[in-house]
Amino acid sequence: MKVIRIILFVVLNSVLFAQQQRITGRVISETNQKAIAGAIIQLNSDGKKYITDKNGNFEIPASFNQKVQLLVVHSDFQVQYKQIQASATDTIKVLIKLKQRITDLQAIDVYAKQKPETLCSSPKFSIYDFDFFEDKYILLTSTNELKTAELKLVSSSGSLISNYFIPKEAGEPKYFYKDFEGYTDLVCKDTVLRIDVLNNQLWPLTIPKNEFDNFYANVNDSINQFLLHHNWWSDYPVFSYFSLKNNDTLSNSFHTVCDADLLKLYNIEYRYLPTYAKLECRRIADKLKIDKYIVAALMSGFTKSYYYEPLYAPLFVLKDTIHIFNHYVNYLYHYSKDLVLLDSVKINYHHPKNWKEWKKQLLVDKQQNKVYAFFSRNGHHYIKGINSATGQELGSYQLQNHSAQKIKLKDGCLYYVYRPFDSTQEKFLYREQIRLE
Known about the structure:
The chain is mostly beta strands. The chain is built from five helices and 31 strands. Mean pLDDT is 86; it is low at 1-19.
């Protein structure tokens, strides 16, 4: 029996040893073949970062059965992707040659005293979107169109610190999304790039599109020991907010939003279908295990009609309190960090005299824990301060620049992208200090 145990021990250790793999290699300059120290390397299968030594050498422990991808980044060289194919040997050796980065790292014009302030500007590119990283800005830019876009990291003084050319395989960039973990995610047509910054170098990490759509895009925030997420769907006038406890797999619904009037119109679509369409509707509903009224509304095109609008009832966490702005019952609900309903207060800022001015958007200044409602009249934008405790209006402020885009808030200021009307100027990044009147 003892001999059998020894044999099993040896066999198992041999198997485990055979499964251990590592990738070793060297990073050099393609121009002069010199070693590149300090290059950052990431293996897509584990997300960890590795740095080359003074001789350009690196070693990565790995375990894979198919090809993987290495991402190699250095501030003085172009980003390199290296495909590695699995091998029967325990050690895979690679040589990576980086091309010299040829970029114009001139300072971007910055103006501190103008109102509104022009924060970042350049005649060489337009800014399509932006986000904040500490005291810096991450910019989505392009010289012509977003199919050939790049990211830029810009200091508060206007200097271009580093940039990153978005690979074509990512698809055309669309917009920045700040996820619940605080990361800036660049949503592209075919994938999502989570942007991190390491040693003042932009460091994108690919997130599968389905993982982003099914998880990150549905999580609003976290509080205490809970993740707060929703099942909102643009084509249905009812959704709920859920809490998911750490290390748990079961979500609990704690608030439901419903546009009752719109739901009646939504459900009545089934009644007006001809008989043959009702039969097909029920067949599809049974096959997909969904409500026949949903199928009917989609079949009739009701969700694309003038009468239908997706619900907007956002959730924000401010000062350890959950705020849900339910515009369909005209109440602001407050929940504690333990998901206990504290109170509800009346709101009516979303019912202006001219209802078209309300743009169904709330802007939050996380640094100051303040909420603003966004309105627009004839292309002129303005915001109204909303007391997050009482739901009452606190005053309004009109933006000085006409038709500003990508409006965001930080530390009592409005930031936005803007190109002057009838101007050949590129899109610049502006800032205005909020002064409610």
